[in-house]
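Suppose a colleague, Dr. K., hands you the sequence of a protein chain of 807 amino acids and asks what its three-dimensional shape might be. Before reaching for any lab equipment, you can write down a predicted structure in token form. Begin with the sequence itself:
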Amino acid sequence: MKDLGVQQIIVDGRDSQPSKQRLEFAGKYESNLVGMEENVKTLLGYLVERDDVQVVSITGMGGLGKTTLARQAFHHDKVKRKFDKLAWVCVSQVCDGMNVWQAILHNLTSKEDENEIRKMTEATLQDKLFRLLETSNSLIVLDDIWKKEDWDMIKPIFPHKAGSKVLLTSRNERVAGHGETYINFKPEYLSDQDSWTLFQSIAMSRKDASDLTPDDDEEMEKMGKKMMEHCRGLPLAIRVLGGLLAEKYTINNWKRLSENIRSHLVGRTSDDNKNSLNHILSLSFEELPGYLKFCFLYLAHFPEDYDIYVVDLSYFWAAEGILRYETGDSIRDVGDNYIEELVRRNMVISEIDKTTGRFVTCRLHDLMRETCLSKAKEENFLHIVGISSPTLHSQSLNTPRRFVSQDLMITSLDVERDINNSKVRSLVVIWNSNSWMSLLVEGIFIRDFLKIWQIDAMEREVKLFWRVSNLGFTRLQLLRVLHLPGAKFKGRRLSNSIGKLVHLRYLSLDGARVSHLPSSLQNLKLLIYLSLDVLGCSHLRTLTFLLGMKELRYLALPRGRRKKRKLELNHLLNLETLINFSTKYCNLEDLRGMARLRTLGIDVTDETSLETLSASIDGLEHLENLVIVYDGVKGTKEWSTLLDFNNLKNLRLMTSIPLLSHELQFPSRLTTLCLSENGLKEDPMPILENLSQLKDVRLWTESFMGRRMVCSRGGFPKLQKLELKGLCEWEEWIVEEGSMPLLHTLSIESCWQLKELPDGMRFITSLEDLSFENMRDELKERLSEGGDDYYKVQHIPSVTFEKLQVR
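The predicted structure, expressed as tokens, is then:
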């Protein structure tokens, strides 16, 4: 495979939010769950009905659907009603007991306990978990435990009493042990009929749209059944093979692939299931178009069970030259298309935002990741330093040009000594968050540069030093990506030598502590992504280096700086995203030429009128996401003129609007609306509930300052998520039958005057998750089973309370 000749440095500490998603996200119900109904029913019986069972292990070979089965139970209504608290933790091949215990406790307690968890010794942590599980009714899922020794290390925190339960998944039947309180559940392989049903639903999904003759259909059905036999009832193999054949839906392609599978697998007798699965996974890679092969191999950079944000991945791909986009294309849209292709082929697992329909994160199934790593090694795509390699040696790094460190055991990385290769294409440093890490790069000192919530109990400090010569970045002039969020710089000055990285296309300094940016940044003319959302930016003076960056697609400006003169941004005609645009430091007129803008965050801090603002952004026809912070007070008529965007889907208004009236014409395609600090005296619901496309509404701090709110019959016909936060004067809520018929998530936080939920809540049968935070404790009493208002919420699978206030 031809080398791309690209380069990057990504330093990622797995910050708290991705970590939380990685540990808690267990995936919602999946489609095509053919043949799993009886398995789910049996598993629910062990978890919900058998009080004598404390530990249930799901065991079997990879690809059998163990994690999928656990997900179905984890999200099932019966489980949510049975257990007070739920926790999902991915354990994986390299198991650290402290990590697992911290993750469980973090799942089971409120976010405010984060710092306390960091400081706990092993004994304190075990004791707190033991007491918590002993006095609660919790379900803990430990996904993908590899060794019996790992389970033996983890299990002391679980009390030997009825109540809390543990659900394990493992390829190793010996993991969970045996006894009266243990159940080892081994799912059956799919039957021939279920295998064929699943295969048809995927591989032949385009049958009706094809122009094949009945004879062709019959022949393809015969070939399909023959190929499906080699899947041997393994759901993963059937899904991947089906996804591959769906993309190659011609009779000639099926003949070719059928012969490939037959010639490789016929006559094999030892470990047939594993051979069949591995070949099908390998074949799915070989049949990818060239550009998707690079995209897939790129995922080998990320650790096991790592949720990758698709928006970041899209820009990484673009910076590497992997993502193909034309002048008029949006990088995010093209990235989504690539992910969709991989998802359609069942090679990537994704999480989709229900309200926007966009991909949020993606990850690899553990067996698909093994295939990815194997192919990356075969193609000499990258070199991964694992736990077996405590240091990086130049001898092992001379051939590949992309290097990934995913190991806490590595305590030093010396560029001069360890990476003796001037043609290095990529250096990625990703660590788990159970240790402090520090990075030194020619005066750049990084420590806790992402918000780390898992810290070693002894607070040991593991330092990662990256030493370079006085030439600074000169050694690595081919770099394409430099991702250093939260960096601490010596003297708060970014080294002037960064200007040597003339091939750089991605630079992120999110949250970095810096008060000086060198003029040499003007040499980075190929940048497509630049985030300067730094701390200490009030001391920044001039950003004239932006003048030459005409290729920028993404720009996050500093939030404030010393005012010398306003920035000149009228040359940035390719921008798709512009964040922290302030009228105090920027010229509104410059926005008129940014016709490709999809996302704009703007802070109006001077005397700029809404009419002037409207005239400046009126031509942004592609604008989809708009955040406006406005200091002035205007009426609905003025705002109507400003918000006249046909394509606007997401809007956040942080400004004073005393009254919402029918004169305020919100964009017709608006799906997400967030109001904050608006000071509305009258109920905004009569206006908002008539916005027929709204799927997500957030009324945040002091957006509404009235006492009574009414949601009428027929209102909010498409609303799925509603968040009410910091409405300190709100006392009464009326919900009429027929209002919000599709609502599935409701969150209420810090609304202290609200004493009870409306009676109409019982009519919202679509509601799945109801959460309260920082609310009156009497609410929980009324809504709990046996309480006066339990009938209002008894149909909701998940009702949770955090940080209740005693009043």
